[in-house]
Amino acid sequence: MKKTRTNRSRFWRGSFRTIYWRHFALMVGVVLLTMLLLGVSFFSISYGYVRTEKVVDMREKAERIAEMSAGYLSGHGVQDGSLRQLALFAASVSSMDFHICDAGGNIRLSTDRDLAGMVVRVPQNIVYTALQTGEYSGNSSLGGLYESTRFVVAVDVRADGEAVGLILAVTGIESLTAVWRAFFSIFFMTAFTVLFIAFIASAWLSMRQSKPIREMAAATRSFAEGNFDARMQRYDEVEIDELAAAFNSMADSLQETERQRREFIANVSHELKTPMTTIAGYTDGILDGTIPPEQEEQYLRIISDESRRLSRLVRRMLDVSRLQSVDPLRTRTQFDLCESARRVLLSMEKKITDRALDVQADIPDEPLLVLGDNDLITQAIYNLLENAAKFARAGTSIYFGIGAQNKKAVVTVRNLGDTIPAEEIPRIFERFHKSDKSRSEDKDGVGLGLYIVRTIIEQHKEHIAVTSEDGVTTFAFTVQLAGGQQ
Fold first, then answer.
1. Hey, is 331 helix, strand or coil?
2. CA 444 to CA 446: how far, in whole Å?
3. Domain spanning 330-480 has what CATH number?
4. What is the pLDDT of residues 108-143, one digit of tens each?
């Protein structure tokens, strides 16, 4: 039994943590507080208004009777019968009783038939206040004369400038609370209607707001299971629609990342399988005697070349992994781009000479200071020059230039060779991509050089472009100049 109550308690605590119940509780609380404040305000205003109006009405009637009672109370000949008739008439048309009292507070004449023949004295506080200030109003049972509290208004009666008595106008409290009771009925009916409408509106709005969140949670669970096809629909609310658009953008990015991951694994598997199969096949051929002894040296050279190719592939993959964990915008420094370019040219001298290539270097003599990661920018220049030397037609020249434009340093590498097809240009920066025509010629390449270049440039928030027309292929990328240079 105790466990059941605990589970029920947890269920309710969990339910009231949802957007629906919190939104509903907030709306109901605001409506109740508003109705309460409005009710209190109306009660105070209406009570004051009704009381004031009642006091004025009772005082006016009491003053009229007081005018007629001055002679009666002063003993100047006003008859009891005529005064009683006047008082009874006033009482009949106003639903109140009148008591005519002498200066001592003794009731001499009353319209209340229950008091006929009784000797009654009004409490002294009422008598004193009425005779001293000329008026009294308040709730009183007149010293136990009435079983329940009545609303009493008293005015003094004067004859020849002296107070000779007082007139009490008495009515039931019900006359004051009748308006309140009517208001209570209207107020509670209105409050119930407003709460009901608030409940419906809150339920609809809360479900509408929580629906995209539930859909997003379902899509997230789908992503966790490896399905990246789920998308959020468009919504009328601007904030929810922006959230849905951001979620869909994230989903597209995740889907593209997953596609690249699978493609990367497939490409890595293919690139690793080729040299490893060659190495294993030729090694087994030498060991089991399939390859004659006089040809072993030739196949050992092939095994050595494939081993070096495998080593380059692993090294490039490590470079890619390192790039993904580096933020050059945090580690960037100021360095001389021209000096870095000269060092790259010196390191490339043997490869350029082996291809019988000439280099047209357009590098300024004065320093050109830029902001970035020196090692990464140097790696990007090296990869571009290596790519240009590899695919340039033997005996031609390579152009390598550095200039400044619009607060940016521009690095340009150009070679003369086969034209890259237009449909291939958008893909040349992809991992392991090689055009079909060059694949057989580029046996040393692993298809990661240009991908590394693009990654480096994009991490620096810069731009790289490539054009290829009539055999002339040009790569150009920008680097941020250090302050003060143009």
1. helix
2. 7
3. 3.30.565.10
4. 888 888 777 678 888 999 999 998 888 998 888 888
